Amino acid sequence: MKRERNRLDVLVNNAVFWGEEVAFEDSANEAWFSVIDQTVKGTYLATKTAVPLMKQGGWGRLIHVSTSLVQDGKANAAANLTAKAALHGLSRSLAVELVAAGIYSNVVIPELTLSEWVTNAFPQGMLEDYAGTFPTKRLGRPEDVANLIVYLGSAANSFVNGEEIRVTGGK
Q1: Which one of 62, 121, 139, 160 has the fewest CB atoms closer than 10 angstroms to its CB?
Q2: 85 and 92 in contact (C-beta within 8 Å)?
Q3: By C-alpha distance, which of 167, 136, 157, 125 is closest to 10?
Q4: Residue 149: pLDDT above 90?
């Protein structure tokens, strides 16, 4: 297989910076803008670099990983959720703007996922109790999210563009 130089087919923007949870009225401007910079600016810069390479190849997939909390809400997380919500607007705009160049843009919206960090950060009993609130009676696994990302980034995805897809076990 010959590899082409200066070609990029798929970009997964998975900014996971999560600032301190604090009531909106108590948030410091510097902390607020730091969260926005880490998530939105980083995604902008990566995407801005990727798009010309995708255009050269006549094909590309932009996948932005958000969080179900953007749609569900969470107290004391306004900066974090504002930053993640910005990815939704960016993705929808790019889906329309870049489709003629063969580039699709979608958002993946996972619920709490049993990553290594989550299993170490939360007590097992709490995770089991929370899993019981899902129709599937389990929390998502990293591969549940990864499988969707692989599909969206593959040639099998010939039509899914501009979508926000929840990976939440039906919650």
Answers
A1: 121
A2: no
A3: 157
A4: yes
Token pair of 69, please? 């909390």
Distance CA 154, CA 148 (A): 10
Q: Which two tokens stand for residue 43?
A: 């995604």
pLDDT at 17 > cutoff 90 = no
Give the tens place of pLDDT for each residue, 54-91: 999 999 999 999 999 999 999 999 999 999 999 999 99
Residue 20 Cα to chain centre, angstroms: 19
Measured distance CA(118)–CA(7) in Å, rounded: 35
The pTM of this model reads 0.91
39-44: Cβ within 8 A, 24+ apart? 39/15, 39/80, 39/83, 39/84, 39/86, 39/87, 40/83, 40/86, 40/87, 40/90, 42/13, 42/15, 42/17, 43/13, 43/15, 43/86, 43/87, 43/90, 44/90
Distance CA 99, CA 26 (A): 42
Cα dist from 112 to 53, 80, 136, whole Å:
33, 15, 13
Give the mean model confidence (pLDDT) for residues 43-63.
97
